[in-house]
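Late entry, evening session. Most of the bench is empty. Finally got around to the prediction I had been postponing all week. Sequence below, unchanged from the version circulated by S.P.
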Amino acid sequence: MNQYDEFKAIIDAYLNQNGKSAEYKSNLHKTSFSDAESVYLYESSQKDLEVINMDSIAQGPYRKIRFPESDKKEDSISTNDAFIICNDNMWYFIEFKNQKLNKTKDSVSKKAYCNWYMLLDIIYEMERKQRLETFWYANPIEFAREHVNFILVISEDKNPMEAKRIQDSITAGERYVPVFLEKLRKYIYHDVFLHTPVTLERYFVKRISLSDL
């Protein structure tokens, strides 16, 4: 069993222990869906990966476990769209935003901390019953700084200048990272990345072979 499967087993055990269920196994295409405009940011024709749909956990079972008196979806903790673990023990949160980059700052920053908190809550609740062998239980903050990454994927149509800058930076062997993402790297993550759907597929998805998951 690889690390990603170990983590899914912990999620399954957590849900079962609390008498809950969730259809959390998904892919990049499905998790890129924008409710506001009913469009997918990551096309079904693009190379895809299996991911964990964080919203399906947060907005259903996790909220009902931690806030049982609430029946409102908006009371759910804020989470990123997708999550995946690679065999090198690098963790990736992925957030799709079908809006202008400068309007994503507050939402992205909030989700960064809330999503990490939710995962820690689940991991530590299950520690005695089902441990994640590669996780540093003694120091989760240091673990995040060494192993947890964040990828923000923005719409090319709504960010043409930023999309060009992203590609130009990659071509030049550099990386374009806005200040608000850089702050997240300083405070919580090992690394942060800004992509369009095209560069996500080309420089992340296609570089992850089946043996990496």
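Two things to note before I forget:
The chain has a mean pLDDT of 94.
The helical segments are 3-17, 28-31, 54-66, 105-125, 140-147, 160-171, 179-187, 197-203.
Will write this up properly tomorrow.
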